[in-house]
Amino acid sequence: MTAPLGDSDNRLDAGSAVESRTTRHEKRKGGRLLVGLTALLSLSACASWRNPPPKDPEALADYKEANDPYEPVNRKMYGIQMWAYHHALRPVGKAWAWAVPKPIRNSIDNLNQTWYMPTVFFSDVGAGKPRRAGDDFMRYVINMTLGAAGFIDVATSLGYPHHDSDPGLTLATWGVPSGPYLFLPGLGPNTLRDAGGYAIAQGLSPINYVPRGYGLLTFNWAYNIAGVLGGFSSHIDEIDQVEQDSLDPYAFIRSAWQQNRQSQVDAIRNDHRATVPDWYN
């Protein structure tokens, strides 16, 4: 890890924010799964791009901690993503933030978050956390009804705040090894386990089963595109800061993402709350 952005907590917060909010929008977009999986399959054809384990004990410890044996090809994939960011995503995101008022952008973010809740619910069920799953269910019902189909976050004010969960985190709580770190264009930081979890998440997301007719398919496209634009427009400054202040943005993002994912796994494992809330008793 090089060139910190202030102290270590701020560095982690900045990296975690980029991952936890921006990629939350990115990872729901099924159209980019093919791109990411194509890059994943290319690893088998790029064995020469694998970094062999060093012999020096100290260097070997750093190698294992990074969990990035495919770093040469991952850096190339990172370069492709950042090229797309600078030449397309960033300008479009800036235009979106300029043209769309912030209250509307917040409502779109709430919509994306609410409609992703079934995936969060099934992930928490799979992790054996009924209280978290119950909160997910209540949050979904409240925001889909009182929150005008998810445009308004009413659930948080009623005691059901949002928390992150996905099938990749569930697999981690089962003890499934992460596999090597991967950077997949369109999906960003990943591991073999999380890439598999992303594929499962697509099957759990109701929006992917929108039928034809009544303009629903058009709405589905609009929903996905607006989510991507909203995600990038909200966090352009954070991404730019990482690029500007870190000597090695790739290594910073890798470290921050891995730490954030581990903290999310730990939060799930350490959630031992009673199955029902106190008011129910």
UniProtKB/TrEMBL annotation:
Keywords: Lipoprotein, Signal
Region of interest (Disordered), residue spans: 1-29
Pfam family, one: MlaA
Domain of life: Bacteria
Family named by the database record: Belongs to the MlaA family.
Protein name from the UniProt record: Lipoprotein
Organism: Asaia krungthepensis NRIC 0535
